């Protein structure tokens, strides 16, 4: 039951992130093709790329610095026995998801696999804290 719920929630999170990133890219395209001069269109295009990237960086810097990076090296360390409580918090999950969505929407060539591994691990950690799955977590 835990693994099925984790798969469903991870897939739903991936779908939402992909959808929001695509919508941000389409918004950037629509805004840059408005009836304005070429110079203004270029400024709008650049601003629509820079602002989401700044939001992504600010989200990771201000909300949860543990959300920085790919996520795979952190998970390797966690699997080898290192204590990583804050790296698997819901706050880190929120910062990682929002930061990834904004970075993709801003046009950064970001790989999604590493962050999704980290986000799924955060979800698994949160699910194991629920009372119904608490006996699994205590082992």
Provide a count of the helices: 6
Overall SS class: mainly alpha
**Element pattern in H and E:** HHHHHH
The rounded distance between the terminal residues' Cα atoms is 17 Å
The helicity comes to: over 70%
Backbone shape: elongated
Mean pLDDT reading? 87
Number of strands: 0
Main beta sheet strand tally, sense and closure: none
Low-pLDDT ranges: none
Estimated share of beta-strand residues: under 5%
Identify the quaternary structure here.
single chain
Please tell me how large the radius of gyration is.
18 Å
Give an overview of the whole structure.
This protein is mostly helical. The protein is built from six helices and no strands. It is elongated and about 65 Å long. The chain starts with a helix and ends with a helix. The model has no long low-confidence stretch (mean pLDDT 87).
């Amino acid at each position: 039951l835990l693994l099925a719920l984790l798969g469903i929630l991870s897939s739903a999170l991936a779908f939402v992130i992909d959808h929001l990133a695509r919508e941000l890219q389409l918004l950037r395209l629509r805004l840059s093709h408005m009836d304005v001069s070429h110079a203004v269109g270029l400024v709008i295009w650049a601003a629509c790329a820079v602002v989401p990237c700044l939001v992504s960086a600010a989200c990771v810097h201000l909300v949860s610095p543990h959300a920085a990076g790919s996520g795979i090296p952190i998970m390797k360390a966690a699997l080898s026995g290192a204590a990583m409580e804050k790296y698997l918090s819901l706050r880190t999950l929120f910062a990682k998801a929002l930061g990834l969505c904004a970075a993709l929407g801003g046009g950064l060539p970001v790989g999604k696999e590493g962050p999704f591994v980290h986000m799924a691990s955060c979800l698994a950690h949160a699910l194991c804290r629920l009372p119904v799955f608490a006996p699994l977590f205590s082992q």
